[in-house]
Amino acid sequence: MDYGETPPAGEALADRSIAGAVVDALRGEIIHGQLKPGERLRQDAVATRFRVSQTVVREAFKDLIRECFLVSEPRRGVSVATMSADEAEEMTTLRSLIEPQALAWAIPRLTEVQFEAAERVLKELDDEKNVDRIILLNARFHRGLYAAANRPRTLTTVETLRLGFERYLRYTWEYTTHRDRSQQEHWELLAMCKQGEVDSACRLLTQHIRATGDLLVECLAKRPVEQPSKL
């Protein structure tokens, strides 16, 4: 990526803290593969691109390192974190513990309006072919169910894990045929939630998360999807 180019007007950094907006922009580019795993980021080049100070970029880098999207190495500087089977397994394990608990809290609180909204999302997913839209709708479906839990700390953790897992999920749906199975499980999960079947829904959600994660770990272990830049 050429960091000397001027960002489009739509990337304006207004209405947010400048560092936070830089974080969001870079995170999005990592998730969507515009910034490649192992690609090095120069602080001065990023500052020039976003028309901000190097101090702002330094703070943005710190945030992204904490989120595990960037890594900092002695004498190499900052680069985009690579994808690994170990990290995929770690995030899958965490998600399979936290998300079913969020769902268990949510199910007794879910309303007919929320069920109808979830069904509309799944109907869109049935016909959607674009990977970006599929990922967006998938997140919207799960987020809509968990929101009823009304547990802010848990939901914040779920969202953090979702962001970290998104580029892995993108890889899974671009290079495997897992999507059809995943969508069938979405419909089954919604039906269980409507019936108030908390234990069954949580078991299915755990299996749903593990199936995606296990497939991804297997794919990554067999075929590394990238190598760090040697620049």
TrEMBL record:
Gene3D superfamilies in alphabetical order: GntR ligand-binding domain-like (1.20.120.530), Winged helix-like DNA-binding domain superfamily/Winged helix DNA-binding domain (1.10.10.10)
Record carries keyword Transcription regulation: yes
Annotated keywords: DNA-binding, Transcription, Transcription regulation
GO molecular function, one term: DNA binding
Residue span, HTH gntR-type domain: 16-83
Pfam families given in the database record: FCD, GntR
SUPFAM superfamilies: GntR ligand-binding domain-like (SSF48008), Winged helix' DNA-binding domain (SSF46785)
Source species of the chain: Achromobacter pestifer
Name the record gives this protein: GntR family transcriptional regulator
